[in-house]
Amino acid sequence: MRKERCTYSHRAIGLLVLTLLLLQGITAFAQPRLQRPEFWLGVHGGVSAGTVLFKPAESGMSPITKACVLGGNGGFVFRYMGHKYCAFQMELNYMHRGWAQTTTAGLTGHNLHYIDLPILMHLNVGSDQCRWFLDFGPQIGYCVYDESKSIDKRFNWGLVAGTGIELQTRKAGMYWLGVRYDFSLGGVYGTSVTDSHSLANPMDLSVNLGWIMPVKKKLKIKN
């Protein structure tokens, strides 16, 4: 029975990712195009609270507020905008993940440090100066440092969704403040029939500040 549930779960996850990618493409082509595509580069960073969804649950991980690990995140941002209300955004990020549990020695944190690559659809509504935005899409990542040597699987992949407000200036680029939820579909432990967990998925909630500047190509002057 568990093997069947795992098979159905993997199929459902694959279908969800394909549906999300298809939705990104349909959304992009449905938007009015800009006369000249825009390219933006910048950085972002903030704070995050992370935990891991275990099934069956690990001992000492309740309540959820005590099971979280607080950390930082940040990275580089590349945005391609070929349509008026949507863009493709790629990031190269550092993310502090993990979980905490209460043991006989006290509260123990399992700190994991990842490098992530999200590929996001960036939708925005509003004026040129102030806009509300929605980000969503898949991401892949790799755990580059496991402080407590507590995980079996370093490769990570999952889904990201976020929202916030962005402000565009004339000469100082674009700034934004947003909140983002990240749910990993790859576990930190094995989740096959012979493993002790059927779920071991990291999840994170983060608040970020960002800044990007347009990349302008130099025009060639014809003689």
Features:
Porin; mainly beta; disordered C terminus; disordered N terminus
Structure description:
With 223 residues, the chain is mainly beta. It has one helix at 2-29; strands spanning 33-55, 69-83, 86-103, 106-126, 130-146, 155-168, 174-184, 199-214. The longest helix has 28 residues, at 2-29. The relative contact order is 0.19. Residues 1-8 and 218-223 have low confidence and may be disordered.
Q: What is the beta-strand fraction?
A: over 45%
CATH topology: Porin
**Name of the CATH class:** Mainly Beta
Mean pLDDT: 84
The separation of the N and C termini measures: 75 Å
Biggest β-sheet: strands ordered side by side in the sheet: 1-2-3-4-5-6-7-8
Described by strand count, sense and barrel closure, the largest sheet is: 8 strands, antiparallel, barrel
Total of domains? 1
Count helical runs. 1
Proportion of helical residues: 10-25%
Number of strands: 8
CATH architecture: Beta Barrel
Rg is 20 Å
Class derived from helix and strand content: mainly beta
Topology pattern, helix = H, strand = E: HEEEEEEEE
Shape: elongated
Low-confidence stretches: 1-8, 218-223
Short description:
This protein is mainly beta and 223 residues long. It has 1 helix and 8 strands; from the N terminus they run H-E-E-E-E-E-E-E-E.
Topology:
Layout: H1 2-29, E1 33-55, E2 69-83, E3 86-103, E4 106-126, E5 130-146, E6 155-168, E7 174-184, E8 199-214
